[in-house]
Design goal:
Blueprint lengths: L16 E3 L3 H11 L2 E6 L2 E6 L2 E6 L4 H5 L2 E5 L3 H11 L1 H5 L5 E5 L5 E6 L5 E6 L7
Parallel strand pairs: 1-4, 5-8
Antiparallel strand pairs: 2-3, 3-4, 6-7, 7-8
Length: 132
């Protein structure tokens, strides 16, 4: 069988489990960013942005969280950056200050945001216009 040719094997969703050091604070953080928070039971919530989602879990291992990254490809990184800057996340959530967009050597413009558990988010855009 050739990769990608698995008859009948379909995927409806792919949702990673993201760690939370403080489950309540993490839910508020993602809500502030614009995600919808849907509790699924004790210690588990679906965090959704449009048709995309991940599962926030009330579980934390520092070494795992410090090496965990999420990648979000967006159409308008500048608009996302203005939104992120306005939130003043470092003051409200005691997180590292977000890094402004820059062109990375691997070809995308990327702004970096750390969540309250240390998970690093890459908000990225394919370059078609210069970053302002």
């Amino acid at each position: 069988m050739i990769a990608g040719e698995a008859p009948g094997l379909t995927v409806r969703q792919l949702r990673p489990f993201v760690p939370a050091r403080d489950f309540s604070v993490s839910q508020k953080f993602y809500s502030a960013l614009g995600f919808e928070v849907h509790p699924l039971g004790e210690g588990l919530a679906e965090i959704r942005l449009e048709q995309h989602a991940f599962l926030l879990q009330n579980y934390y291992v520092e070494q795992w969280a410090a090496n965990f990254m999420m990648h979000v490809l967006v159409d308008d990184l500048q608009r996302w950056w203005w939104h992120i800057k306005e939130l003043d996340l470092s003051s409200h959530f005691d997180v590292q200050a977000p890094s402004p967009p820059k062109l990375e050597s691997w070809g995308l413009n990327v702004a970096y945001v750390s969540d309250p558990s240390g998970v690093l988010w890459h908000f990225a855009e394919t370059p078609s216009k210069p970053i302002r």
